[in-house]
Amino acid sequence: MHRSTQPHSLFGGLLLLMALASAAAVMAKKGAHVHGLVKLDVAVQAKTLTVQIQAPLDSLLGFEHRPRTAAQKQAADAVLKQMNDGARLIRPPAAALCKAGKVTVESETLQATAAAAGTGARDDGHADLDATYEFTCEQPDKLGSIEIGLFEAFKRIQTIEVQVAGANRQSKVTLKRPDKMLRLGR
Question: 49 - beta bridge partners?
């Protein structure tokens, strides 16, 4: 009897390992979704500063579904308005002479129209907002730091994980509330 249960135990263990490996692969592909955590990618190339933000809607709004009530719709509109104000959220030093350029803000959940509400817009309990901000800087050598206004604008954000890529170096930094200065170390 002991021999007949052993293959089942091995098979069960193998299935568990396969399930864990599959789950890890999915998480690695999608990226971890953690409330209170925002991810920021900063790139400096020639005179262009690009900042990309990925934030769980819960960190910005307190909910992650399509707005259902008038108050939720108003809150969602306010978040979209704030996120479209790149110059308020991302503040390069004045000495770098940066001018705000293209802003892209995407959230399938918040931007889904009533017509699209039942046709593919995600509403599975985990939704993000992605934003990209581009700046043209006349003095990019003066980009020693950037002031990040996300903690001021969104009280639910607790941590910002930042990846910085420039011509001379790459780095990772974690900002914790209330630290808002991102040092680029150029």
Answer: 44, 135
The letter for the amino acid at 92 is P
Counted residue by residue, the chain has a size of 186
Structural domain harbouring 15:
1-31
- Assess whether 79 and 146 both reside in one domain: yes
Tens digit of pLDDT for each residue in 48-106? Answer: 999 999 999 999 999 999 999 999 999 999 999 999 999 999 999 999 999 999 999 99
Adjacency order of strands within the sheet including 181-183 = 90-91, 145-148, 181-183
Is pTM, for the whole model, over 0.90?
no
Give pLDDT, residue 131. Answer: 97
Q: Are 57 and 64 in contact (CB under 8 A)?
A: yes
Q: In angstroms, what CA-CA distances link 182 with 43, 124, 154? A: 13, 33, 17
- Which two tokens mark 146? 């950037």
Count of domains for the chain: 2
Q: What is the secondary structure of 124-169 as a DSSP string?
A: SS--EEEEEEEEEES-GGG-SEEEE-HHHH-TT--EEEEEEE-SS-
**Single-letter amino acid, residue 53:** I
Dihedral of CA 76/79/83/85: which sign?
A: positive
